[in-house]
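Reminder to self: C-alpha cells first, then the designed residues, so the page reads top to bottom the way the pipeline ran.
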C-alpha cells in the first residue's frame, strides 16, 4: 500500500460533523498504536510546524493513564492531549484512527456515525502488510526532539 493509496482511502472516510467535540471514542485512543512510515512522516512534519519544542515535550510528559474499571488502568496514545481532550495530530492521524466509527469492528460508541466502509477488513489486511511502528518506536529513531528535520 503506497502513500497515494493511503490518501485515496483517507478521502473515502467521511469526516462526520457528528464527531465534533465528542470524545467518547477516545478510550480507543489507547496503547501503542502502530502506524506506517509515511503516516509517521506526516505526523512528524505536522508536529514540527504546529508545536513548539515546549508544547511537544509537555504533551509527551502528560500522565496518559486512565481507569477503565475498578482497578483496571489503560494508557492513552502518546499523542492524545489529556488536557485539551483531543488528538494533538488529528488532521494527520493514521488510518487506524480515521477508521474509528467507520468500520463494523470499531463502531462509534454512541452509534452517531452512520457510515461503514464495507471493505474495512480488507483495507486493514493490506495496511497490516506495511512496515509499522508505534509512535514511541518512530520517536526513538528520530534526532533531537523526535521529529523531522529539526534535529538534522
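Designed residues (152 positions):
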Amino acid at each position: 500500500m503506497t502513500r497515494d493509496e493511503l490518501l485515496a482511502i483517507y478521502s473515502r472516510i467521511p469526516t462526520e460533523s457528528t464527531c465534533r467535540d465528542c470524545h467518547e471514542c477516545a478510550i480507543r485512543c489507547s496503547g501503542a498504536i502502530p502506524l506506517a512510515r509515511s503516516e509517521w512522516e506526516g505526523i512528524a512534519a505536522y508536529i514540527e510546524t504546529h508545536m513548539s519544542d515546549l508544547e511537544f515535550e509537555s504533551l509527551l510528559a502528560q500522565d496518559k493513564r486512565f481507569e477503565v474499571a475498578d482497578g483496571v488502568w489503560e494508557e492513552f496514545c502518546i499523542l492524545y492531549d489529556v488536557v485539551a481532550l483531543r488528538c494533538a495530530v488529528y488532521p494527520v492521524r493514521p488510518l487506524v484512527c480515521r477508521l474509528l466509527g467507520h468500520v463494523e469492528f470499531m463502531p462509534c460508541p454512541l452509534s452517531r456515525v452512520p457510515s461503514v466502509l464495507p471493505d474495512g477488513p480488507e483495507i486493514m489486511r493490506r495496511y497490516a502488510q506495511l512496515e509499522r511502528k508505534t509512535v514511541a518506536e518512530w520517536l526513538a529513531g528520530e534526532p533531537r526532539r523526535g521529529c523531522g528535520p529539526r534535529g538534522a
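DSSP finds six helices and six strands in the chain.
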